[in-house]
Amino acid sequence: MSLTLYLSGEIHSDWREQIISGAAGMNVSFSGPVTDHAASDDCGVAILGAEPNKFWHDHKGAKINAIRTRKAIADADIVVVRFGDKFKQWNAAFDAGYASALGKSLIIMHGAEHQHALKEVDAAALAVVETPAEIVRILQYVIDGTLS
Description:
Blueprint: E1 3-9, H1 15-22, E2 28-31, H2 37-48, H3 54-75, E3 78-82, H4 90-101, E4 105-109, H5 119-124, E5 127-129, H6 132-144
Parallel strand pairs: 1-2, 1-3, 3-4, 4-5
Helix pairs in contact: 1-6, 2-3
């Protein structure tokens, strides 16, 4: 079995790299958002022209990023959404809802401190985890039915 994962969420830690390295040797491919914060924020104005109003600056960037995000989520077998500690990731919550609406298998990752705030997001998930290692174990079990 082969799987495609979309890795959504916070960009301030190495959780993506931990999953990708942990899944080495498995038949898994990965995609995700642009994690270069400046490029993601400024892509709209860099491509379509400057905006003096910050709302339109952000609006252009969000729409350009949505082209990538929608395609990658639609193509994914599993969508992993990581909620970190630094910022409120409204975009990650939107990705989780979009994936859920498409009927995608959804794994949510966050610490115990976010359980209450994310209870509705967690309720849509097939698994809620706290670590990248747990995701790797889920992948191994889903792919070959073994427990490590």
